[in-house]
Amino acid sequence: MDPKKRSSDKATQEMLERMYEAGIENAWDRLEQQEPQCGFGRLGICCRNCAMGPCRIDPFEEGPQAGVCGATADTIAARNLVRMVAGGAAAHSDHGRDIAHTFKLVVENESSDYMIKDERKLKEVAARYGIETKDRQIKEIARDLSEAVMTEFGKQEGTLISASAYPPPARQKVWKEFGVTPRSIDREIVEIMHRTHIGVGSDYKNLVKQGLRACLSDGWGGSLIATELSDILFGSPQPIRFGANLGVLEAKQVNIVVHGHEPTLSDIIVAV
Ligand code: SF4
């Protein structure tokens, strides 16, 4: 095991050596155990989206060129790709939903341990959502914003407010031309699962287009909501100088590692 082949980070190399000596398995070990990885899987031409499968396409054109339902390699690869998009967008945007729920609790519950730390950011975001901020109490503005962002996840009509409130008009025009303006966060993910099922979408270009729309609903919807509400609840980030990587661990003290990407819990642990 050569740690330098696995990571260029010196602290990680040191940790990999220690793990090797201690017989502790890691992702690199498991990757080696998987070699050679499944060729059909790597090409995305194996499908098990329905009970008639699994089906696979012969990439050398000597065997089957369509699944039982008639899906070609293009269709199967596009279905697999956009289902991965659905999974990623769901994971990413649900992080935003969790923060939106925390924000709602702050608005509804005076004794919540969470609080609105950045009022300027609250007003700025509220204004983007068309919420009146002048001469209004912070709590009132926050309540309206909470309702607006919650609606973005499951709305049945129209398009995402944030998809027109943030991106430049030229970008919005491109989305409109291609028919990929995101409508709501959950809807685009559900539509992927629908269209990629047997007997539904088979045009690979159309499937990939829906994947793009779900990406946009995540990036300009759930993910953006997570960022904006995190700033409001935990304070907008400022550049600071700090240590990084596994080298921050101290041998002679108890180390508590909090995961900052999902700050709802870690922020309150640090505060306590
Ligand atoms: S959806 Fe089509 S290609 Fe996929 S498993 Fe079912 S029959 Fe096979």
Explain what you see.
The protein has 272 residues and is an all-alpha fold. It has a domain at 72-241: Substrate Binding Domain Of Dnak, Chain:A, Domain 2, CATH 1.20.1270.30. It contains twelve helices and two strands, in the order H-H-H-H-E-E-H-H-H-H-H-H-H-H. The chain has helices spanning 3-6, 10-22, 27-34, 39-43, 73-108, 119-128, 138-154, 162-165, 169-178, 185-195, 204-234, 263-271; strands at residues 46-47, 55-56. Strands 1-2 form a two-stranded antiparallel ribbon. A hairpin with a 7-residue loop joins strand 1 (46-47) and strand 2. Helix 5 (73-108) packs antiparallel against helix 7 (138-154), helix 6 crosses helix 7 and helix 6 (119-128) packs antiparallel against helix 11. It is flat, with a radius of gyration of 23 Å. The relative contact order is 0.13. The mean pLDDT is 94. The structure holds iron/sulfur cluster. Residues 47-50, 52-55, 67-69, 71, 76, 198 line the site of iron/sulfur cluster (SF4).
- Tell me what portion of residues adopts beta-strand conformation: under 5%
Instruction: Bin the helical content.
Output: 55-70%
Q: Hetero groups bound?
A: iron/sulfur cluster
CATH topology of the domain at 72-241: Substrate Binding Domain Of Dnak, Chain:A, Domain 2
CATH architecture of the domain at 72-241: Up-down Bundle
Could you give a quick summary of the protein structure above?
This protein is mainly alpha-helical and 272 residues long. It contains 12 helices and 2 strands.
